[in-house]
Amino acid sequence: MYDAKKILAKQEINSDELEHLLCMREDGAADFLLIDVREQHEYIEKRIVGVDRLIPLSDFFVKVAELEKEKCKPIIIQCKSGVRSAQVQAQLKVLAFEAPINLAGGITKYKGKTEGKG
What we know:
Elements: H1 4-8, E1 12-13, H2 15-26, E2 33-36, H3 40-45, E3 47-48, E4 53-54, H4 57-63, E5 75-78, H5 83-94, E6 100-103, H6 106-109, E7 114-115
Parallel strand pairs: 1-6, 2-4, 2-5, 5-6
Antiparallel strand pairs: 3-7
């Protein structure tokens, strides 16, 4: 059995955990943001169903103020492989965000529902 609080307390989650969190969020049992930090052309090609915002890494540090109201909420960050999202996670920690979480392996390792042109 998956426990949303335990998963959202982690620094890094895997594909299965994100899939379960997305289902729990649909049922009102989990509250978090899912942010994609890939570039727009990557997002158009393929994206995880349930992404709340696209904030490309190239614009992230200009647009991070958009997340200011969400500082206390768990924020799951994903990219293609987990490298860019780990960079953003580290910066969010520096900026005093309480719960930035990296998706291990990014969309490349994600086994859940996706959409897009690819």
